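User: Round two. Same drill as before: sequence, then structure, for each protein.

Assistant: Same drill it is. First protein:
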Amino acid sequence: MTQHLNVIQANNYPIYFNENGYEGLNLYLKENNYSKLFIIVDTHTNEYCLPVFLPYLETNVTIEIIEFEAGEANKNIETCVQIWKVLTDLGGDRKTLVINLGGGVVTDLGGFVASTFKRGVDFIHVPTTLLSMVDASVGGKNGVDLGNLKNQIGVINVPKMVLIDTQYLATVPQNEMRSGLAEMLKHGLIYDKPYWEQFLDLKAIDFADFDALIYRSVEIKNEIVTQDPTEKNIRKALNFGHTLGHAIESYFLENESKTTLLHGEAIAVGMILESYISLDKKLISLAEYSQIKTTLKAIYDDIVFEDKDIEPILELLIHDKKNEYGTIQFALIQGIGSIKINQLVENELILEAFEDYKS
C-alpha cells in the first residue's frame, strides 16, 4: 500500500508521487499538443523500468525510445551528440517532449539534451533510483561531465514536471540504495536535525514508511532550491560533503588502480571529512562529530586512501564548480541541522581530516 503523498510545488513545476504522477502526466499530455514524444533511457532502465512505465501512458502521440549505455562514463558530450542526431533523424521539432526515465545520469544528461536541442524543448523527469529521486530530479540542474570532471558543462533549466514513483526502487541494487541514502542523510545534516535522527538506527526504520522519508528529503531540497534557484546563496548548503566528495569521486573514476565509487559512497566520505573540518572550526561539537562519523561509517564501507592519493584529490578541488576567484569554498555544518556557507579551508586542515578519517 503506497501512502497518499501530496504534490510538492517546485519553482514553476510540480513534483508528483506514485499513482498521482501518472494522472498528472496523462492530463498534461492531453492539454499540451506535442508533435512527438521521446523517452530517453539507459540500458538498465530500458529493460527494467520502461515496461512498467509505458502501460501508464495514455496518448496518441508517436512515442520513440532512445537508449544509451548505462553508467557515469557515458555522461558526456559525445552521448549528447548521438542523441541530438537521433532526435533530428526521427523528426524531433520545437514541439517535441522528452521524458527522461532513469537515474541521475539519465536525468542530468536527458535534461541537458532537451534544454539545448532546438534551443530547448520541454522535458519531464521520471527518476528511477533513490539518488535521482532525492537529488537529481529537484532543482533544474542538467549537465554532463567533461573528461573526469563532474557536471562541468550544463544548464539550470526546470522540467515541466517530475514524477517520483517508488515502485521503480524494486529494481535498484542495495549498494545503489545506500548511495541515494547519502543525499537523504545530507538533507538532515544541513537542514533538519529530527530528520537526521530518524536514520541513526537504520535497523529500526520501517521500510513501509520509506516513501515518507523520501518525500521529506525532496521537500527539504526543494525548500532550499526555491529560496535560491541559481546558487548565489543558501543553495550552496546542498554542497555539503560534495566539495571533497566530488574530488574523491573524480579521482577514483579516472584512476585505473581504484574501484570506481558510487556517488553516495564518495559523498559519505566527503561528509565525514567536512564534518571534521566543521569540528576543527568549532562549528559542531565533538559529540556531534562522533555521531556523524559513527553513523556514516556503519552504513558505508571504509574507503582506503594511500598517501599518494591525497595530493591529486586536492588538485581536483581546483576545478570544483563552486570555486570563486580561485579559492575553494566549503559549505560546513554549524550544528546538526544548520549550515554555514562560503567557508575557506586550508590544505593542512583537509590533510588532517583525511588522517582522522583513516583512524
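Second protein:
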Amino acid sequence: MSRQFCGKLFSKAVTFADYGRPQEVLRVTDRAIAPLSPTGVRVRILAAPINPSDINQIEGVYPARPTFEPNVGAVAGNEGLAEVVALGEQVAQRSPNSDGAGLQVGDWVLPFRRSFGTWQTLASVEASQVVKIPKFTNVSPLAAATLTVNPSTAYRMLKDFVTLRPGDYVIQTAANSSVGRAVIQLCKAWGIRTINIVRDRDNLDQLVHELTELGATLVLTDGQLREASVRAQLKELNGPVALGLDCCGGKVSTEVARVLSHGAPLVLYGAMSKKPLTFPVSLFIFKDIQVRGYWMTRWYGQQDHETRLTMWTELLKLIDQGALQSPSFHVIPWLVPPVANADDVNGSLQTKIQDALRDYSAGFTNKKFILAMDPKLLTEKLSG
C-alpha cells in the first residue's frame, strides 16, 4: 500500500516521534520516499515480524537507536523481507563479479543493518544496505521474513562459543521460545542432543510432546531441574553437557550452570526473569565454567554480506528440506477495508496495529506476530 502525489512516492509507515509505550507513540503516516540514487535500490516490504527488540526500541530501552527524520520520526521494525522493485543506474550496470552486484528486480533481500525500519511499504536505500537471498521452493516469504533474528541467534550461539560434536548435549532455558525451538531443530540436524528447560504449566504434556516432535532429547521443568535426583541423573549422561544457553536469568541460570560439564560456556542472551545472576564460586574454581553474553545485533555489526549470506543460505536450505520448521504465525493483514480518505486508512491501520501490539504484549497466543504488507501472503499456509 503506497501512493504517488505530485510525482513523489509515499510509503505508508508505522512511525514514532518520541520514545514511549508503543500503543501511545506509534502513528501510521505517509512518508515521502527519497529519490532513487545511482547506487541505490527501491524495495517493497513483503512482511515484517514483531519482536521484543522492536518493542524495546520504541520504548527507548534498546541499545540500537533508530534514525529520526524531521516531521516523520523513526520508522519502527528491524526485521523483514523485501522485494527489489527498482534499481539505480549504477547498480543495474554492475558486472556480476563486482561488489554488491547481482541485484535484479524481483529479488528477495534482507536488511543489512539494524533499525532498518521494516514496518512500512516502500523504502529507497543504498544497495549495500540489503543482502540478496536465494529463493527456495519450500521457503515462504513469511519464513524468510523471520530469518534474521531467532533462527540466526540460535545458529550463532551453537557455532561461536564451543565446537560441538555429535553426541554432545546442549542445555537451554525457555526451550519453547522461537529461539529455543530453532536450537532443538538445528541440534537434531547436526546430531547434537538437547536438555530443554521450560516453566511448569497446565498443558505441560502437550508442550513436551511438541518439543519432542521437533527433536528434543529431554524436556524438564525448572522445578524438576532443582531436584537433586534429576541433577544426579544428568551427571550420568553418556556425553558432555558442552554448552548452556539461557535467556531467563535468576535461579534457573544457576541450576543450568551446575549441570554444565567442566569448562563449558553458559551463554546469556536475555533476562526474561529480570532477576540477577548468582553463581557459587566453586563453579568457577572447580568446573571452570565460562559465562558469556551474546547480542545478535553486535554480531551483525561485525560481519560482511558474505558471512551473513553463508549463514542465511544454510538456514534456508534447512527450512526448504523440512529440517527447520517455520514458527506458527499470527498474521496481521496490512490492508484495511475501503474507507473514505487517506486519513481514515491511516487511522484504521493504526488501530489494527495497536490492537495487535496489545495482544502481543499480553501473550494471548504462542504464535509469531507478523505484519503482512503483501496481500498474497494472506492466502498462503500460515504455519510451519
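The mean pLDDT is 90.

User: Perfect.
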